[in-house]
Amino acid sequence: MLEIIKGVKNEMPFYYFEQISKIPRASGNEKGACDYIASFARDRGLYCYRDEFNNVLIVKNATQGREKDKPIMLQAHTDMVAEKNVGTKHNFEKDPIELIQEGNILRANGTTLGADDGFGVALMLAILDDNTLSHPKIECLFTSSEEIGLVGASKFDYSKIEARRMVNLDSAEEDTVIIGCCGGIRTELTLPIIKSSCEGYAYRITVGGLCGGHSGEDINKNRLNAHILMGKLLCKIDGESRIRISYISGGDKDNAIPRECECVFLTGNELDLSRINSFARSFLKAKEDEGLFVKVEKADTSSAIPRNSTKKLLEILSVRNGVLYFRSEPPILPETSRNLARIRTEESCISIGFSSRSYLEARLDESTAELDSLAQGLGAKTMHHERYPGWASPIDSSLVKSWQEAFLKVSGKKTEATLIHAGLECGLMSKHLEGLEAISVGCNVHDLHTPRETMEIDSMDKIYDTLVELLKK
Q: What's the whole-model pTM score?
């Protein structure tokens, strides 16, 4: 049955992981995956509801003797972050993910793996397909476009849901059970520009080789942001010889720490940039960024934005970034963070995308107000969008205890209840489903939202067994 993954205890979850990995499902392109899931339900005679936003709900009735038990909802998102290494020939619109097994580790060939949240989708399909299990009524909700702002979950009709207990399968550490997450908001800052012809020496600087990572879970790991680093390099060069920027671009996803950035600029003097690489490496703090490189070469351009616009852009690239505040009580995690995620040079503007996260609504307001003030002072504009709420669940809830007991029985290990500095659909769903008791769990997945993403195979096996054990109760 399995084509690539070998040596597993439970073949069914990994079979479905292989199947969905064949289907392109970058955020906004989930139709193929949803077609597959809906067809899966029809072939098994299961109730299936699919909406215009590519959310899919599948219901499996309780097994004999469990009809009076309270229903439970399992939930995961079908989309994945589409990131690839420079030089990797992969089209996320049509190519399957090329899976590679290395012992207990599963990775992809030069791209994100899609374990976030492919493992959750695969576990749910395996549960639905196993008629030997004992369980209450199960409502499996597959949501779309989670990675670009919980889009599908925000548009679903929750009158279709009966359950008030939910297991969200979108966490990345097997020994934790998540009981709270932060809220977030995205900001688009637009700086108007007018290019004009000019003379001078033109150079192209490329920053690359950085690790990147999840803009929530990895934001406190001292990994370099390619755009912030580019800003530091340009400010240093500008201090020695005034520059005018012609082009700048980098990053792709709001929820990923950018790994690459490219900039073309002109200056009146021929520069000695031999020391720029060592200057860049002076900012290294995380060993994951040891692959950092800065490539400097002469460019061919004769137009650039004005000097005053260049200074405005450098000010934007110097904005506070990363962890802005830490929590003052355990668990000591980032409380509020900001990620300068994307930069694009267009015909009449430079657009810059930010993602802010916090457990506190007031801190989100503070972050957006700071960006508003910055933009106003520079003659730029901001647009805030895709705001979603945080979420907190009692540490002693019955669902938390049931999961902990099931995990202990399966693994012989304890699992701790904690918070996560990332957004989860639990918060949004709690707003729609009054009295919802929710947890978020998952297997060990590393370096999410980067081409370094890996998943521990035996951990996915373990989480499947724990889920089966939970459903028995």
A: 0.89
